Amino acid sequence: MGVRSAVAGLSTAAVPARIGLHTRWRIATAALVVLSVPLLFAGSPWQLYAVVFVVGIALAPHMITILGRTERVLPATRLAASMAFLMSGTVAGQAPALAVSGRLAATSGPPAAFAVAVGAALLCAALSWTVGSRPAPGRTAAGERGARRQAGR
């Protein structure tokens, strides 16, 4: 999953700038939902491998977009602490999800465990459609580099 995610992440640089981060976030989370639902129906290890192979494509673009949105909506003075909090929150969120998934896998089988991943993807998608898109005070939606470029600096 890591190689496909890395390739997809690198390819996000090719997305035209006119497609804003909020739109990219919505697309990435929708892709996570669509690509993770087949986890619930994988009946063999080979089918599971194929699904995980494909779902990896949506992971890096999602994370890159989240980090980019964070950079755009926060004042520069709070950026380092906010990025550290965001990445720590990612790990902290994975821990209980893994514990619940493991318990569900042991008691109810793999589809129940994969439902946690699908639920997390649905939660991310819902969040992407409910959270507004606004730049931090003193920043433009294009970010500081875009603002400097537009100002001719």
What order do the helices and strands come in, and which of them pair?
Layout: H1 2-11, H2 21-36, H3 45-73, H4 79-108, H5 110-130, H6 143-151
Helix pairs in contact: 1-3, 2-3, 2-5, 4-5
Region (Disordered): 134-153
Keywords: Membrane, Transmembrane, Transmembrane helix
InterPro entries: MFS_trans_sf
Walk me through what this model shows:
Helices cover 75% and strands 0% of the residues. The chain is built from 6 helices and no strands. It has helices spanning 2-11, 21-36, 45-73, 79-108, 110-130, 143-151. The chain is globular, with a radius of gyration of 18 Å. The chain crosses the membrane at residues 25-42, 48-67, 79-100, 112-131. Residues 134-153 are annotated as: Disordered.
What key attributes describe this structure?
transmembrane, Growth Hormone, Chain: A, MFS_trans_sf, mainly alpha, transmembrane helix, membrane
**Based on DSSP secondary structure assignment, what is the total number of beta strands?**
0
CATH architecture annotation name: Up-down Bundle
Helix content: over 70%
Q: State the end-to-end distance.
A: 41 Å
Class by alpha and beta content: mainly alpha
CATH class: Mainly Alpha
Could you state the CATH homologous superfamily? MFS general substrate transporter like domains
CATH topology descriptor: Growth Hormone, Chain: A
Q: Unreliable runs, pLDDT <50, ≥5 residues? A: 143-153
Q: Number of folding domains?
A: 1
> H/E order of the elements?
HHHHHH
Give the overall silhouette: globular
Mean pLDDT over the full residue set: 83
- Main sheet summary: none
With helices defined by DSSP (H or I, 4 residues minimum), what is the helix count? 6
Instruction: Please state roughly what percent of the residues sit in beta strands, choosing from under 5%, 5-15%, 15-25%, 25-35%, 35-45% or over 45%.
Output: under 5%
Return Rg in Å.
18 Å
